[in-house]
Amino acid sequence: MPAELHGGGRFVLSRKDFVPAYVKAFEEGLLQKRADQAVESLGSCRVCPRDCQIDRFNNKIGVCKSGRQARVASAFPHFGEEDCLRAWNGSGTIFFGWCNLRCVFCQNFATSQLGEGAEVTPAELAGVMLDLQAAGCHNINFVTPEPSSLLCWPVRASPADRADSHTLPEQLP
Ligand code: SF4
């Protein structure tokens, strides 16, 4: 059995040995390459099963209505998440506007379906994440779209600006 599953049924990683995957990729010189690949993939977007094949890089809009830049509706330490995510300083939550799903029951409808928020550059998004880190949040929590449609934004944000300053998520004791 893998060591991570020895926590009495819980998935447990050793705090001492934990290194976030993006930090490891940055240290190994792979993060910028992955960011470049993520940006390139926008040219004919197939990053989610909607398979629109439109040019998001030049702001053509597919099912998710997301263009080249991320759209951020809000960012704050979230205390409404589960205990393991919010802990005592909150989960560093960023709500992105638009979504590639069309759930009529979405509890964040104004954000996911009406596009609440404003566009941010990769450097600005990196700044938002660093502000949440400085506020003591235990992790960065991307909310609203199904993950594959937004993944290029945080991947771009980290190498674009001070990747070596990002350290979250931390392992809680
Ligand atoms: S991420 Fe958006 S544009 Fe790309 S395939 Fe999915 S819905 Fe279409």
Account of the protein in words:
The chain is of the alpha+beta class. The chain has one domain (19-160). It contains seven helices and four strands. The protein has helices at 21-27, 31-41, 83-86, 109-112, 122-134, 147-150, 152-160; strands at residues 70-78, 91-96, 118-120, 140-143. It is globular and about 45 Å long. The protein starts with 20 loop residues before the first helix and ends in a 13-residue tail after the last helix. 31% of the residues are buried. Bound molecules: iron/sulfur cluster (SF4). The site of iron/sulfur cluster (SF4) has 15 residues, from loops.
Strands, helices and their partners?
Blueprint: H1 21-27, H2 31-41, E1 70-78, H3 83-86, E2 91-96, H4 109-112, E3 118-120, H5 122-134, E4 140-143, H6 147-150, H7 152-160
Parallel strand pairs: 2-4
Antiparallel strand pairs: 1-2, 1-3
The structure holds iron/sulfur cluster.
Iron/sulfur cluster binds at residues 45-48, 50-52, 54, 56, 62-64, 66, 100, 149.
Average pLDDT value?
Answer: 83
What topology, given as strand order, has the largest sheet? 3-1-2-4
Q: How can the largest sheet be summarized?
A: 4 strands, mixed
How many structural domains can be distinguished in the coordinates? 1
Sequence stretches where pLDDT stays below 50 over 5 or more residues:
none
Number of helices: 7
Task: Give, in order, the helices and strands.
Answer: HHEHEHEHEHH
The class by helix and strand makeup works out as alpha+beta
Number of strands: 4
Radius of gyration: 17 Å
Strand content: 5-15%
Q: Between the first and last Cα atoms, what is the distance in angstroms?
A: 23 Å
Using the alpha-carbon principal axes, give the shape.
globular
* Ligands (ions, cofactors included): iron/sulfur cluster
Instruction: Report helical residue fraction.
Output: 25-40%
